[in-house]
């Protein structure tokens, strides 16, 4: 199959691309490389890999990237509220308007399906006595989630019998990647515990869902391989486990028993919700394989063995400011 992955050089995208190539697909990546291209270096000599450096807001670039494509994975976005709040207008352009441009262009050019990565953050705060399902009310607490919800709506409206649209609402991702990030909660906890033996923790009782990079990629491929009738115009939650933040701390303490917890610190984050992943298992048979504890183990292995030379390098924290955005 001929596949386009927007944002394919990113944290999740680079893992997905490797798996797609391993299954003998032809993969084209469209990415602006805001944080470099290390994630796709292992693929540049692969006979089935192609790279297009560009911006999903540029229609000419999008159309060029769609030539001969059967399926689009749309991952390209500014991710997380700190990045999205720097320039709200640009966030709307990149996260919403350009996603719709990709979707409409794909449909007009005969692409068979588009798979969009949304977020479980759309639920915001929910009733903790029950798990949030795909039909639960949405309560976005950030511009990031608002743009994801708007994009879900506009892309799903494009679906018909000849154009399959599917949305995956991903849990907070953790684990290793060729384009590493250390500003995601579990990854950041491990780094701070290892380096400083101290964690800043905001709302330790808050619940959140989590998913490993490998499992999230496997879920996307499961959707790719599913019958259109099962996934068209559908939304699926995707994650492995729901955890309270204080539960994550206990996993980290396995490696740093004298860990100090600063409960007055940390970036304000009021999200508090638990999510059901039953639908994706029931409809397409997908079951994740990696627990949160597995991810903590591999992350500590990586930092202890100096896999990353500088754990605070800008490219690992995805810190966005006006200077970075000016490159776009």
Defining traits:
alpha/beta, 38% helix, Rossmann fold, seven-stranded parallel sheet, 328 residues
Secondary-structure blueprint:
Blueprint: E1 2-6, H1 13-22, E2 26-31, E3 49-53, H2 59-66, E4 71-74, H3 81-84, H4 88-108, E5 113-119, H5 143-156, E6 164-170, E7 172-174, H6 185-196, E8 198-200, E9 207-212, H7 213-225, H8 228-231, E10 234-238, E11 241-244, H9 245-253, E12 260-262, H10 278-284, H11 292-304, H12 314-317, H13 322-325
Parallel strand pairs: 1-2, 1-4, 2-3, 4-5, 5-6, 6-10, 7-9, 8-12
Antiparallel strand pairs: 9-11
Helix pairs in contact: 1-7, 2-4, 4-5, 6-9, 6-11
Describe this structure in words.
The strands form three sheets. A seven-stranded parallel β-sheet has the order 3-2-1-4-5-6-10, with helices on both faces. A three-stranded mixed β-sheet has the order 7-9-11. Helix content is 38%, strand content 18%. The two termini are 30 Å apart. The chain has a domain of 228 residues: NAD(P)-binding Rossmann-like Domain (Rossmann fold), CATH 3.40.50.720. Strand 1, helix 1 and strand 2 form a beta-alpha-beta unit. By secondary structure, it is an alpha/beta fold.
């Amino acid at each position: 199959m001929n596949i386009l992955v927007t944002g394919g050089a990113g944290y999740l995208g680079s893992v997905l691309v490797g798996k797609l190539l391993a299954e003998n697909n032809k993969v084209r990546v469209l990415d602006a490389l805001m944080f470099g291209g290390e994630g796709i270096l292992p693929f540049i000599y692969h006979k089935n890999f192609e790279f297009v450096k560009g911006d999903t807001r540029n229609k000419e670039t999008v159309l060029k990237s769609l030539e001969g494509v059967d399926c689009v994975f749309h991952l390209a976005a500014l991710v997380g509220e700190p990045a999205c709040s720097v320039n709200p207008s640009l966030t709307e352009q990149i996260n919403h308007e350009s996603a719709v441009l990709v979707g409409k262009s794909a449909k007009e050019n005969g692409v068979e399906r588009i798979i969009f990565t949304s977020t479980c953050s759309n639920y915001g705060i929910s009733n903790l006595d029950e798990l949030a399902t795909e039909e639960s009310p949405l309560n976005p607490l950030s511009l990031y989630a608002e743009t994801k919800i708007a994009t879900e709506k506009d892309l799903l409206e494009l679906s018909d019998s000849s154009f399959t649209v599917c949305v995956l609402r991903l849990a907070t991702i953790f684990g290793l990647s060729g384009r590493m990030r250390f500003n995601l909660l579990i990854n950041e906890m491990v780094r701070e515990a290892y380096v400083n033996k101290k964690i800043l923790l905001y709302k330790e009782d808050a619940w959140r869902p989590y998913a490993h990079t490998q499992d999230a990629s496997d879920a996307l491929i499961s959707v790719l391989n599913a019958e259109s009738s099962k996934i068209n115009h559908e939304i699926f939650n995707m994650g492995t486990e729901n955890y309270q933040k204080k539960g994550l701390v206990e996993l980290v303490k396995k490696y740093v028993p004298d860990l100090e917890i600063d409960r007055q610190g940390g970036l304000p984050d009021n999200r508090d919700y638990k999510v059901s992943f039953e639908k994706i298992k029931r409809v397409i048979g997908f079951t994740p394989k990696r627990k949160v504890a597995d991810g903590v183990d591999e992350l500590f292995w990586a930092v202890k063995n100096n896999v990353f030379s500088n754990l605070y390098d800008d490219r690992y924290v995805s810190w966005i400011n006006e200077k970075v955005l000016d490159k776009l």
